[in-house]
Design goal:
alpha+beta, Conserved hypothetical protein from pyrococcus furiosus pfu- 392566-001, domain 2, six-stranded antiparallel β-sheet
């Protein structure tokens, strides 16, 4: 069973920090140095002061890296900038945002979720991770004993069981309703009623949870848990806070659950190998020329890709739509044949580039930037991919396989700073 539990969250005191929108930020891995400084200047209490850290010196100790952050976190709690809720609670988030001129809304449950080994098939990953990024988040947890940002995860609620419960919760008065300059609005409700909490906990006991965004943070939390177990061999109470990690849980069926394509770029490939790659593409895909700017290209990929396996290729010679030939699909490819990214990497690039594939292959979610760099010759080739279908996502990941790296770009990223989860003591 998946243990989904309420917890005593730490939240900003609005009387102290002012506008809640000014203290929120995106997850750490979406923030560059310039954005980090802008967020710090937005409000002295912006959560970026606690969350930042990617790209630090891996050779420096955690204590040295995060000493200032730890002191700040302690001071904010002592001064009442952050206050802990008296009762264990779930937190319901409604997040509205603009996309293509349309207002989108998604609803997520912020909860403490029991850490599990992937082999139990209760928490399901969809991609592999890289060790340095995991270590960075372990260091942060060791310094703060807290989860600052929630992992984004998804679950299936085909009958809308929780939808009805959420509507009741959202009919009440929220803890806050914050709107930023982009038009994005975040509203938070606290669920402290034991009867409602019981319904939520029982709902998840028979359902797996799929990691959507935050694999590094999940595996860091798992490492942190195992380290605590090694320190205290005699206290293995299941209810200890370090046996859990904070997640925001969103339904597969939520109309505001948006997945965008994650595109591929090629550069510095030797001329002979690039020729062979293009020949392999011609062997596996039917091609037709494409015209239009980057928005027109991605619109065609998204629209036509709804019922076809295809991608677009762009270089300084122009753009093509590449549609996978049915005759080219090997039955041994299995369910991953549904992933154009997998076909591209495993059947086109890796046979030619071998172990050097990742020296030439990179990933970009901004289609305009990618197309511009391909057309200018800054990149040798760009491949525009459609959003990965969620039904295929559920089938492949639920079947125990992982997708190629950077297969999904869940948009937008969850706001950080709504709730902080301390990892000391019991829930």
């Amino acid at each position: 069973m998946t243990a989904v539990s309420p917890f005593r969250g730490w939240r900003y005191d609005q009387n102290t920090v002012g506008d809640m929108a000014s203290v929120l930020c995106p997850p750490y891995d979406m923030i560059n140095a310039e954005e980090q400084e802008e967020l710090k200047g937005r409000n002295q209490y912006n959560v970026i002061h606690l969350e930042a850290g990617e790209g630090l010196d891996w050779n420096t100790s955690a204590k040295a890296q995060y000493a200032t952050t730890s002191d700040l976190f302690d001071r904010w709690r002592a001064d009442g900038v952050l206050r802990q809720d008296t009762d264990p609670s779930y937190y319901l988030m409604r997040h509205s945002f603009l996309m293509g001129g349309k207002n989108m809304v998604r609803v997520g449950l912020i909860a403490s979720v029991g850490l599990e080994d992937y082999e139990t098939r209760q928490v399901l990953p969809h991609e592999f991770t890289q060790a340095p990024a995991i270590q960075d988040r372990v260091w942060l947890m060791e310094s703060l004993s807290a989860n600052i940002s929630p992992i984004m995860s998804i679950y299936r609620d085909a009958d809308g069981v929780l939808d009805q419960l959420y509507k009741q919760v959202m009919s009440g008065t929220p803890e806050f309703d914050a709107k930023d300059e982009s038009g994005s609005a975040t509203t938070l409700w606290r669920i402290a009623d034991p009867a409602v909490q019981k319904q939520i906990g029982e709902f998840f006991t028979t359902r797996p949870i799929y990691l959507a965004d935050g694999h590094h943070r999940y595996e860091a939390a798992r490492q942190y848990q195992l380290d605590r177990h090694a320190e205290d061999l005699y206290n293995r109470s299941a209810n200890l806070a370090h046996n859990f990690v904070m997640m925001t849980l969103i339904s597969f069926d939520d109309p505001g659950l948006v997945v965008l394509g994650y595109h591929r770029t090629l550069n510095d490939v030797p001329a002979d190998k690039l020729t062979n790659i293009k020949a392999k593409l011609d062997q596996l895909f039917d091609s037709e020329p494409l015209t239009g700017d980057s928005d027109a290209l991605i619109e065609q990929v998204d629209r036509l890709g709804a019922n076809r396996r295809l991608l677009a290729s762009i270089d300084n010679g122009g753009a093509k739509m590449l549609t996978l030939k049915d005759s080219a699909v090997d039955p041994n490819w299995g369910s991953l044949a549904a992933s154009e990214a997998w076909v591209l990497e495993e059947q086109v690039l890796r046979p030619e580039l071998g172990d050097a594939t990742l020296e030439h292959l990179d990933f970009m979610h901004d289609h305009e930037e990618a197309v511009g760099q391909a057309e200018s010759g800054e990149l040798q080739m760009v491949f525009l991919l459609k959003p990965f279908p969620l039904d295929a996502f559920e089938s492949i990941v639920g079947g125990g396989q992982r997708l190629p790296r950077k297969s999904t770009f869940f948009f937008p990223k969850l706001p950080t700073g709504l709730v902080i989860n301390r990892l000391e003591g019991e829930l």
